[in-house]
């Protein structure tokens, strides 16, 4: 790409890219558009190209989004002791401290520099469904400490699920399926839908030292909706190299790049070396990415995409909404994605088995925290 201001296909602005600072131009799906064919074609193009796209006019108001971020900030600002009272449980509900999650063990020296909070589908303890690995009651901070917090998060959870369902209908059409394919009870009818509040504390990442805000990974489910707080322009930190030359007075300042506190994606996970591009936040939009289950369902026609977050020393808040089907859903090659020449690449697997393994692989064992508490 040449070094100039770029305009995305649908108005997504992209800043001047350099070798170190390249922006991805993503398609933008307008959920209020009556032109379904156009939406399907934009989404399909995005899924074939990079597995990432923006979704706008999704029905969640910016005011409400701001309220969710404000409440999220309030939680992460609580003293560590207060946050540890709602430490995540074995159902993946509640608080995840910094370093809890290790997404890219090959390249990271320790877990991610981010803390989080998982909120899933609320299933009362006495409901037989609560026995399922990803179902049960949520863990909530006390309403005396954070009034209205639970209500705000529950409302967002419900609204985001409707957005995920709307996007899934367009995905279904793009895969030549009936529009309501993913609406079935075993799919997003009774989903494992998990939202996760995230906070990056302001540490500087350094890939050469294996330090990341969030290590490179692809998400596990059908799709992820991502909302970020940094929507009011680029927050940049100019990186300079100070180099001592020959005499005392000859300090040499070299601009080596700018660090952005953004999500980065790698469009081709098989390419070496990997090429990383920034995704600029778009006000009011969700950044949507395809998960690994959709890659399996679609027999790799739609690939999940590697992404990561590099911290630049500034705080960052984001909210990820992971849309996954029901526990018992058998994720197997879709009829429209296989042929004699292109047989299924993956064996069928239930969503519950697949997800349990992925969470186990990436999260600290809870016994670590029990041991820590005994020693304090
Ligand atoms: O915080 C972000 O922007 C990305 C988070 C993410 O990729 C994840 O939690 O899966
Ligand atoms: Fe992710």
Automatic annotation (TrEMBL):
A UniProt-annotated Pfam family: DIOX_N
Gene3D superfamilies: B-lactam Antibiotic, Isopenicillin N Synthase, Chain
Record key words, sorted: Iron, Metal-binding, Oxidoreductase
Name of the protein: Fe2OG dioxygenase domain-containing protein
Organism taxonomic ancestry: Eukaryota, Viridiplantae, Streptophyta, Embryophyta, Tracheophyta
Domain Fe2OG dioxygenase: 191-325
Domain of life: Eukaryota
Single GO molecular function: metal ion binding
This protein's record includes keyword Oxidoreductase: yes
PANTHER family: 2-OXOGLUTARATE (2OG) AND FE(II)-DEPENDENT OXYGENASE SUPERFAMILY PROTEIN, OXIDOREDUCTASE, 2OG-FE II OXYGENASE FAMILY PROTEIN
Similarity comment: Belongs to the iron/ascorbate-dependent oxidoreductase family.
């Amino acid at each position: 790409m040449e070094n100039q201001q770029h305009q995305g296909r649908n108005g997504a602005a992209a800043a001047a890219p350099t070798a170190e600072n390249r922006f991805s131009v993503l398609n933008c799906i307008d959920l209020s558009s009556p032109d379904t064919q156009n939406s399907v074609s934009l989404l399909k193009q995005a899924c074939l190209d990079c597995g990432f796209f923006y979704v706008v006019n999704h029905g969640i108001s910016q005011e409400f989004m701001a309220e969710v971020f404000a409440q999220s900030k309030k939680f992460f600002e609580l003293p560590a002791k207060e946050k540890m009272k709602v430490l995540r449980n074995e159902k993946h509900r509640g608080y995840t401290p910094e370093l809890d999650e290790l997404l890219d063990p090959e390249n990271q020296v320790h877990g991610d520099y981010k803390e989080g909070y998982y909120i899933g589908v609320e299933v009362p303890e006495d409901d037989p469904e609560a026995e399922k690995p990803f179902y049960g009651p949520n863990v909530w901070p006390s309403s005396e400490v954070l009034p209205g917090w639970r209500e705000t998060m529950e409302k967002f959870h419900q609204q985001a699920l409707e957005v995920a369902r709307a996007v899934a209908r367009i995905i279904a059409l793009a895969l030549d399926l009936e529009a309501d394919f993913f609406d079935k009870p075993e799919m997003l009818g009774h989903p494992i839908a998990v939202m996760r509040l995230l906070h990056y504390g302001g540490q500087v990442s350094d890939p050469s030292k294996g330090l990341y805000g969030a290590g490179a990974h692809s998400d596990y489910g059908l799709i992820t909706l991502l909302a970020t707080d940094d929507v009011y322009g680029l927050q940049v930190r100019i990186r300079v190299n100070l180099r001592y030359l020959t005499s005392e007075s000859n300090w040499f300042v070299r601009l080596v790049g700018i660090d952005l506190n953004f999500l980065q994606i790698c469009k081709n996970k098989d390419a070496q070396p990997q090429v990383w591009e920034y995704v600029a936040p778009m006000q009011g939009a969700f950044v949507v990415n395809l998960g690994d289950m959709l890659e399996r369902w679609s027999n790799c026609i739609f690939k999940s995409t590697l992404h990561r977050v590099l911290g630049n020393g500034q705080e960052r808040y984001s909210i990820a909404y992971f849309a996954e089907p029901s526990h018992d859903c058998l994720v197997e090659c879709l009829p429209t994605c296989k042929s004699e020449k292109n047989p299924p690449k993956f064996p069928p697997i239930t969503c519950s088995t697949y997800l349990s393994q992925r969470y186990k692989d990436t999260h600290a064992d809870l016994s670590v925290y029990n041991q820590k508490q005994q020693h304090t």
